[in-house]
Amino acid sequence: MAKFSGTFDLKEPPPWQNCCYCNGPPATSASSTSTSFPAAASTSVATSSNPRQQPQLQIQQQSQQLLSFKSPADFVRHLRQHHCTVEGGSYVCRYGYNEVCASLPLDGVSDRDYEMHVNRCHVNQQQKESQIKWSVFSAAQNLPAVLNDPSRSKQTHFFTKKWGDAFVEHQSIGTSPQLPDIKWDHFDFYLKRIGKRYRVHNRIAKTALPSSTSQGQQPVVSDRLPNGAIANLKDIPEVFLKHNLELHSPASFAAVFPGIGNDGEQAKQSSRLLQEKLSHYLDIVEVLIAKQVAEKSSAFFHAMTSQDAIMEQMREATTLVSRLRSRLKLIDDTIIRESLQIISLERVRSNNNIVLERLKLMSTVHQTQPMIQLLLSTQDYVAALDLISTTQEILSQELVGIHCFRHLPSQLTEMERLIDKMLTTDFERYSTSDLNRPFAGDNGVVEKVLDEDKLICIISGLLRKRNLDFIDTYKQEAITTVRAIVKQMVIEVIASGDAEVCLTGAGEEAQSLSLSEWIVLLETATVTLLKLLRRVRSVHDVMQQTADASAGKITDDVSFIDTEAFLCMEDYEVVKAKLANLLQSVCNYCHERCANLVSNQSLEKSSVSADQIAKLTEIVERFSDGCEEVCGIQSVPLKLALRAQGTRYAQKFHAERKSKMALLLDSERWKQAEVPAEFQKMVESISKGVFVWNKGPEVNGTPISSPAPQAVLMVDGQPFALVGAALLLVQIVSEYCRCASQLPVIASQLARNVIDLLRTFNSRSCQLVLGAGALHVAGLKTITSGNLALVSRALQLVLWLLPHVKRHFQSLEPNGTSTGSTTILTGYDSIEKDFASHIKEIENKVLAIVCDLVTNQMANWDARPPVPSQSFRNISRQFVKLHEAIAPILPQKQVATIYRVVHKNFKDKLREQLLRNNITNNGGPQHGTVVSELTFYMETLRTLRAMPAEELRDETLDDIWLK
């Protein structure tokens, strides 16, 4: 810190020179210090007459107050007397804020420890640290903030620490980047500028009085009293200097007039002395006032000289103000008052217009009820409801408090309820009359909606009232009409008959009508219900158009061009959903009622034919297509009922054919049967993809004689020798295909039934032939190779038939890639594998019979005369019998395959026998015998021609000899 000359020194005094917690200098100061204070005070009073010396005097007083102790011993003595308490022989230091020392414990110490504490903490320590007066910004911690700080960890010694600066740990706070770093260098310019002015001020203050004295100038007024004493304000008691001197107060009165109540001579002397004292005080005040006036005389004279100028300025200002007021008065009279009057008149005119408009509005509202009745008479319900709503709004907003209209809101509300009830009643009446009116004839003319304008008005009013339940009402009325129509149809059918029947509660007849009557009833009911659905669709379209126009949707109908949109989008979506549900519900109910007529119970006692099922299918398809055209949806109940009837018919059809096939197989003798000509034609039609069963040729309805039966059936140029069961199987399968063509609704079930029938034929024929079941069932003595060959040929015919049947059923599927079609194709592939496996088993059975005989004969054979031996004769004879049995039945290729396997087996057995007998190709007698035997064997095979000639050369037998 820089130091300046004179009494201005910025260096702080030692901290022990003053007491920071006492007001003013202590009473225990040194004598020199205590005596210097009055002198300083008197000097300040005496020299206060000079304004230039006041700052210097104040600085001196502050220095005297701060430097109140001349030595540390005086400061220690002051602390012991004024800032220390003795409690039971222990000294407690009270030098601190709120008489609490921050360094010494509260329980006290001994005299020696107290002396050491004062020297260490309050004398020497304070010399190192600057003493700062405490304020709210000097608080080291805040107890509530410390106790409520959630970021502080738990401390075990938290409640045992003493309150003070060290209660919480001190944390260093970094410098803020928002505040600049202030150093002492920043104050250099200010100190230099102020210090220079302060030095000049002190120099002038010190040299002002001596200079005037040296020049011989005397003060204008002296401050001495007539007795020669100097007038001093300190000589006047303090009671006279109070600003609230109250003589009526006893204390103040006693202080001013002491001894005023005494008697005698002493009282008189006291009075005279008091008078003299008061006169002396008055003289002091007068002298000081005169001195003050003398010192300020120049200012007084300056004020007096400027008073004339001020008065002149006041006169000019008064003249200007008078002129301004006159002009303002003129402006007010000529401009302002007339303008304000114009504004007032305009306000009056505006109020009159408002009253007139209100009266016109009241007149209009007064005509509301007659206008509503007029609108209702023209069936303009929407306009009537809008008028009621608008009138209610006007009454609640613009005509509030009008006494003559106090009953009108309740009347309008009641009228609105009446309109709502009228709309509901009119709509119900219209729905009943429209749905129950007679239907037009079958001339193809589309019926128009009954009173379309009236219906539009009613629906618009209901939509305006947000009464959306009218759609449900119409739906229930339509359902009731459907129920009544079906019941009436049943009654009419029953009335046409002669039998006594009863009716159930639903209106259906109690299962006593014939099948033809049921079909007629269903056809009539579907036609009538379809007309009803078209009528419902017409009303639905009118409702939809009205809702579209009410919601602001664009419509092409001329009737809705001027319609104002009042239906919100939420209500519009609800109406749209209800209308869609209306068509679906009515259509589904019609299907359900018709489905009850075609239920399982209604036809369970009747014998249904394919033509009748076809007729039912035609009726159902026609009705379903009509419903889909009208409603846009496909209903399921009626089709399910039809499918149930078709399923029952298919089950019955299949059970009859399956039973018939079982009887045919059980009575089959497994012998070749003749093929009638109609079977040949049937197979030829099947090969072309047409399954037609003709009983016989006719001319003009008269059957003619058919060609003679053939021995075999020609299939694609190949002869098939068949048993009767195989021919009837083809006929039955053709019946299945023909029925499927006639009744596509049960085509998939018939396809599965065909698979079941073929699987039954396969398994049953296997049991009867391969399993020898025919020995007990048909009374056969044995199962021959011919029987096996006939079964194999029948199975081959089925294999030829399977692709045609599969394609036929696949063509009847509405979607060839559907799941049902895939299942059917898989079933046909499976049955095809079963038939092929059965054919292979039959072939293996034939081979097993022949191979066993060859094995038995070769086991007894030996290469010795006679030639040919009996074994070779038996083998050749068996080969001839086998050929005679299977050659007329099986195709040549299959016969060659069988004989090729038999021939190979013969060579294997012969090779084993030659090896056992040790016969080699050495040209010996045994070799010659074997060659002779083989020559006989080969001649037999060549005679049968069972195998190709190149496979019957002599060289083919060379592999029987061991190399």
UniProtKB/TrEMBL annotation:
GO terms for molecular function: syntaxin binding. GO terms for biological process: Golgi to vacuole transport; protein transport; retrograde transport, endosome to Golgi. Residues 718-852 form the Vacuolar protein sorting-associated protein 54 C-terminal domain. Keywords: Coiled coil, Golgi apparatus, Phosphoprotein, Protein transport, Transport. The keyword Nucleotide-binding does not apply. Its main location: Golgi. Residues 276-429 form the Vacuolar protein sorting-associated protein 54 N-terminal domain. It is found in: Golgi apparatus, trans-Golgi network. One of its GO terms (cellular component) is cytosol. The keyword Coiled coil applies. Signal peptide: none annotated. PANTHER family: VACUOLAR PROTEIN SORTING 54, VACUOLAR PROTEIN SORTING-ASSOCIATED PROTEIN 54. Belongs to the VPS54 family. This is Vacuolar protein sorting-associated protein 54. It comes from Aedes aegypti.
